[in-house]
Amino acid sequence: MTSAAVLEHPGLLPGALDPTRPHARRTARDWLVDSLCFVAALGWVVVATLDAASPVPSYAERLPYPWMIPADAVIGVALAVALWFRRRWPVGLAVATLPLSAFSMTSVVSLLVIYFTVVVHRRTAVALAVTAGGLVANMFFALLRPDPDLAYWPTTTWGVAITLLVLAWGMFVRARRQLVLSLRERAERAEAEQQLRVAQAQQVERTRIAREMHDVLAHRISLLSLHAGALEFRPDAPAEEVARAAGVIRSSAHAALQDLREVIGVLRAEGSLATEPERPQPTIADLPTLVAESRAAGVRVDLHDEVSAADELPAATGRTAYRIVQEGLTNARKHARGAAVTVGLRGAPAEGLSVEIRNRWPVGEPDTDAIPGAGTGLIGIAERVHLAGGRLEHGRDGSGDFRLAAWLPWPAT
Question: Minimal CB count within 10 Å: which of 67, 182, 184, 353?
């Protein structure tokens, strides 16, 4: 709801009562303001009645009937009581009491308060319509209740001046409240947008960490499956080899379980990210260790590193290259068991970094014991490369090999 629309409903303004909501109640400020208005209206009734009934030359000399003094007092008291309902029906009270402003002296304060309420809480068009009616009634007031000391036009001018003054004051109050509401709405919107940005940043960070852990977990499980398959294939292997393979399986299973717990913990996090510091992310310098793990699992891997000034490679680019090689080795173990894998890296500052993983396409029927995959590894790698501003290619080449190749930008230092 806009600020202008809010102003059309008094209950939505600070210190106002909304008649459309049964649970709305006057605030302490409302009670204080309404009480002061009621007391001021009653005080003016007393003053105006005493002045009209005084023996000195006054309005009483111009009244055609004596009973008009007590009748006017009753009208003034009734309008003072009606002020307690002005928040609920401001326009209705203004229209109903508009004829009284043509002759009632005791109701002047009450009529001005009701008129002020209309100007503050209703549209400008409504306020101007009530103002026009009041100005017309004011012209009759000078005729029906002439001032003994002032002529007709000075009296009428004073009435117009007071009416316009109340109009200006009410419009100022309305504009100020509208400004306050606009600033409050803007502040609340900014706070909500900030909270949304924080939540989105946390979600992006959790997704990034989960993706990193997914790649590591897939790599460890593929190693685990490879060692278990070797034991199944050679049940008569020497005890030392069996013990060494069992140790590798145990350590890989423990590491995979730990990674899985971290993934679940990250995905379940809702308030904030884990308070523990994030583990150091691998870079291109960790590729020999990654290759050594695959060789220990029985995979024939040849690493050709032709990168110049590797220590100047940006950390993000090195981490992306590591994940590409990791995904390529994982896919080779899954889908091309026993095939030799060639990993090649070359590049230099201002030339970019090229990464290529190549293995022979498996011959014969697909292995029914192959490690199942979710099929999202290459999708994740493609997203990484795209975000890094590089290019990715994968599939069978002209020689029949499966080739995973990427080029990553490497700006000159």
Answer: 67
CB-based contacts of 326, cutoff 8 Å, min separation 6 = 215, 216, 219, 290
Q: How far apart are CA 65 and CA 19, in angstroms?
A: 41
Q: Return the DSSP state at 372.
A: P
Instruction: Give the long-range contacts of residues 377-384, CB within 8 A, separation 24 or more.
Output: 377/215, 377/218, 377/327, 377/330, 377/331, 378/327, 378/331, 378/404, 380/211, 380/214, 380/215, 380/327, 381/323, 381/324, 381/327, 381/406, 384/320, 384/323, 384/324
Residue 228: CB atoms within 10 A of its CB come to 16
What is the maximum alpha-carbon separation in the chain?
Answer: 132
Q: Contact 44/106 with Cβ under 8 angstroms?
A: yes
The predicted-structure confidence for 128-178, as pLDDT tens digits, reads as follows: 988 888 888 888 877 777 766 677 788 788 888 888 899 999 899 999 988
Most confident stretch, 59-68, 124-133, 215-224: 124-133
69 band by pLDDT with thresholds 50, 70 and 90: confident
Query: Where are the domain boundaries for CATH 3.30.565.10 in the chain?
Result: 281-413
SS3 of the chain: helix, strand, coil, percent, to 5: 65, 10, 25
Sequence-separated (6 or more) residues with CB below 8 Å from residue 383: none
Per-residue confidence band for 250, with pLDDT thresholds at 50, 70 and 90: confident
Other CB atoms within a 10 A radius of the CB of residue 105 amount to 23
144 token code pair: 């029906």
Calpha distance 150→342 (Å, rounded): 110
Specify the residue for token string 């009483």: 60
Beta-bridged to residue 395, according to DSSP, are: 403
SS3 105: coil
Query: From CA 400, how far away is CA 381, in angstroms rounded?
Result: 22
C-alpha span between 371 and 361 (Å, rounded) = 16
Question: Which class is domain 281-413?
Answer: alpha beta
First-to-last C-alpha distance (Å) of the chain? 54
- Who's near 2: CB < 8 A, 6+ residues apart? none
Q: Which helix (H) or strand (E) holds 304?
A: strand 301-307
